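INFO batch 0412 | record 1 of 1 | parsing
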Amino acid sequence: MDSNCPVLSDGTIAISWIYNLFGDCVYGWQESISLLFGYLSILCWLNAQMPQVIKNYKLRDAKGLSFTFLTIWLIGDVANFIGCIITGQLTFQIILSIYFTLIDTALCAQWLYYVKYADNRIRRWFDGDDEIKTANTMISELPTTAPTSAVITIDDKKEVFNEQSSLLSTSTQQRQQKKYLTMMMFAFSLYTTFGQPTTTSITTMSSGMIVGDENKTIWVGRFFAWVCTFLYLSSRLPQIYRNFHRRSVQGLSIYLFFFAAMGNLTYVLSIFTNPHATRTTMLEAVPYILGSAGTLLFDCTIFAQYAFYKNKTGSRRSDEDSELQA
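INFO prediction complete | emitting tokens
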């Protein structure tokens, strides 16, 4: 066994394969499970927002997302980044906070690009003038009136537009899929290179970003912990309301909320299964537990909306097809 992992007073030695693979000194099965949940949480969060970025690009639309939801999420990650800097967190934590801030910024930029400023010069240059004109022609050629048995709604026009746009940009989507695979490889390499906290760092994360014994640093860490908790808890409400108002989840990637929910769940489990947790560290971890567990409940609400509105849309289309055939 490497000298970096000392033998405990009772003769217990660290698990060699975990140290060789992750560089962490782990001495029991419970500590191993806690460590595993921690790494799974990081991996889930690294892959959470990217499916939504890809879906927005394929649909060339982001109206399904609430901009308030994206903005609050971005502010929360920025607050997390500032907290990491002020409290002197480890390098990998700072890098992760930067990554989350950048991916949130990308989602906000997509919303502005596709929704707020849909007709912009950058989009015309990037997509090609001919392609946009062709797509606009398709929309203009759609009938505005139709028999009662075959009424074409705005949503139907939008779906036709999205389908036609997808056909026109097949080669572009293939290139984007290659970019997506590249990003996944980058995320995994980032995870394996920097996402390897030691036992000390895990204890630091679960104890409210405490560094040293300075009271000022402790209170700064607590402040940003509660700020992030409030922002993360309130971020889902605008999206839930938007889904309810639209009676639809069209344009949302279920993988965004799935990976976010799994990231929150595994993070909470990593805290509760940590054998080194004490009353003090658990009290310091309260904002993180509330932020993760509370957000998980809101994610379940979005899952329920997704199942309900998807089934409702499928039933409506089946009824319309039956009426057309009749």
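INFO post-check: Residues 132-142, 144-155, 157-212 have pLDDT under 50 and may be disordered.
INFO record closed
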